[in-house]
Specification:
The complex is a heterodimer of chains A (372) and B (308).
Chain A: E1 4-13, E2 16-26, E3 31-35, H1 42-50, E4 57-62, E5 65-66, E6 77-80, H2 92-102, H3 107-120, H4 136-148, E7 154-158, H5 166-183, E8 186-191, H6 194-200, E9 203-208, E10 211-216, H7 218-223, H8 228-233, E11 240-248, E12 251-254, E13 259-261, E14 266-267, E15 277-282, E16 287-290, E17 297-306, E18 311-317, E19 320-326, E20 337-342, E21 347-351, E22 357-358, E23 361-362
Parallel strand pairs in A: 3-8, 3-9, 6-7, 7-8
Antiparallel strand pairs in A: 1-2, 1-4, 4-5, 9-10, 11-12, 11-15, 12-13, 14-23, 15-21, 16-20, 17-18, 17-20, 18-19, 21-22
Helix pairs in contact in A: 2-3, 2-4, 4-5
Chain B: H1 6-34, H2 38-42, H3 54-64, H4 67-98, H5 104-113, H6 123-131, H7 135-144, H8 146-154, H9 168-176, H10 179-191, H11 194-202, H12 207-218, H13 220-235, H14 239-244, H15 253-260, H16 264-267, H17 274-304
Helix pairs in contact in B: 1-17, 3-17, 4-9, 4-10, 4-13, 13-17, 15-17
Classes of the chains: A alpha+beta (372), B mainly alpha (308).
Family (chain B): Belongs to the binding-protein-dependent transport system permease family.
Function (chain B): Part of the ABC transporter complex UgpBAEC involved in sn-glycerol-3-phosphate (G3P) import. Probably responsible for the translocation of the substrate across the membrane.
Subunit structure (chain B): The complex is composed of two ATP-binding proteins (UgpC), two transmembrane proteins (UgpA and UgpE) and a solute-binding protein (UgpB).
Amino acid sequence: MSDITIRDVRKSYAGTEVVHGVNLDIRHGEFIVMLGPSGCGKSTLLRMIAGLEEITSGEVQIGDRVVNRLEPRERNCAMVFQNYALYPHMTVANNIGYALKVAGMKKAERLEKVAAVAQTVGLGEFLDRKPGQLSGGQRQRVAMARAIIREPGVFLFDEPLSNLDAKLRVQMRHEIRRIHNRIGATSVFVTHDQVEGMTLADRLVIMNRGTIEQVGTPQEVYDRPASTYVAGFIGSPAMNFLPATLAEGPVLWLATGERVDLRGVMEMPRGLAPRAMLQLGLRPERLRIGPVGSGAMDVRFEFAEELGSGRLYHLRHEDVPVTVVSETKQTLREGEPVGLTLLPGAVHLFYGETGRRIETTLRSSVNERVSA
Amino acid sequence: MIERTPVLNIATHAILAAGLIALALPIYLVFVASTQTLAEVTAIPSRLLPSDQFFVNVKAAWITADFGTKFVNSMILAVGVVTGKVVLSAITAFGIVFFDHRMRMPVFWLVFITLMLPLEVRIVPTYAVAANALSPFQAMLDWSGLTWLIEKATSIRVSMEWNLLNSYTGLILPLVATATGTFLYRQFFLTVPDELVEAAKMDGAGPLRFLREVLIPLSVTNIAALATIMFVYSWNQYLWPLLITTDPNYGVVAVELGRLVPDSSSTGGGIPNWHIAMAGTLIVMVPPIIVVIFMQRWFVRGLISADK
């Protein structure tokens, strides 16, 4: 079994801490995606699991072994690198089989295995080529095959798709998921692309500045983002945020003095201080545009982008930009005021200071507008 | 910025031609002299056209200088030095580039400093060491008082000696250490992506295996470049062999060529055998030229390291 347990793991470079005490339990066979912008510590964490980076403090356990002091090769992990890291002077077959050669496997047996693995990733006819004679996608497959052939307990992926063009990226994404399902090993996949994260992961780990912001299934993370950071990172286009103060119950004052009544939409938890500073988060795809005064608030239309299947409307609430994605296509004049209707799941509330989520109870959608 | 105008083209070609003449003219003169008889070569004004004595002179030079033995010696010296340099500098650069340890920069600078201390500068101490390679250890024993202690305890006087004069080891070893080679490797090793190193680690290859199976195969062009430069360098060694070998059986071509060249001490005011000396020069030039021509393709690629 290859569960991975990460306990209070920290990493410092020359006194500067870059990973601040991460705790994470990964179950055997799970596909975990670590998502975050560059510099958030996700790659460092992955490399600490692999053994390429020393663990400053804390503990990493793979299966039932603490691996802190083990060499990379003793950890039962295989890694796929961003730049593939193929040996340029070796043929495809030798690249794939190198780990087995190092392990001392007989040549005949090795070649047999190489051929079998190469077949599964569609490289059968390229075994005698050098990496320099392959396309990006084929090199990626060689890197995959090199990881698969070792039959590791854990697959580690360090942004393996970021050097591929868009179409190939989608194709390889599917292939990685297929291989994961077939082999059943634990996979940890690092990326900054939220689409990759959402589509591949059993569970997402969203990282920011060396800490984990949220762990959950893609659906959980999308439905109930734990902080403004996660809410802004997951979902495309990004969530809209409007600063607001709490009036009473689920009634807010926006910075403009406008009153937004969420009584029909949600119930607020008790114990929130009145006049508390909040962030009102609105999912663009859960907003609709209606006539002035029909929705929860009024905004001004700026311009629209055509998406084919729908339209991306750029609106403005005083100084704050608000985007709406909708399938209904309307022709609006620049500067024209429109009403904003909230669909279920549109509204997320966060503490103004900490950015943490305020847990609310959803109600069926009634967009009642109570004018001030 | 490359401009192409007829005037510039002519000017650049004129400069190129001037350079070519400056390089080729001395070689041509050597060749002309080697084809002439003694009378012709000493004639004033000098004749600038080749004569017909080339093979006679070459044969004379070969016999006079005993190049048969010297060629073998020089070849042993050159191959030994080249092999030593290629291996030693690869290992040094490997240690400097791929291992993060406290001595990394000190070692790097130590190697760097040797650039400022070529053999010509440290020739006296080097000779002293070659005369007895164990003398540094003897000195350490003497200074630390261990010699005295052992003598008191056992009444045996420790006296170590390992003479390298008149031996191939003595010819080769002092020339092996090289900063140039270490730098050449270092520059190449620094371009090897970290991910490749890490991939090898994940594949379970230890450091020496990585050196042998990944780094060395990747640096063949570098090795070729280094080997070429160093072959010519060691083939042309003069001062060190002159100093350390007194036995003619260990003489090398450059020293022997020096003896062919007539000056007042070797001819004693006798016959100025310039035609023989020039023929000898041509003979001695042949092996480096062959090596350079043969290695040229690799050599250029290794120095510009475009091919990865």
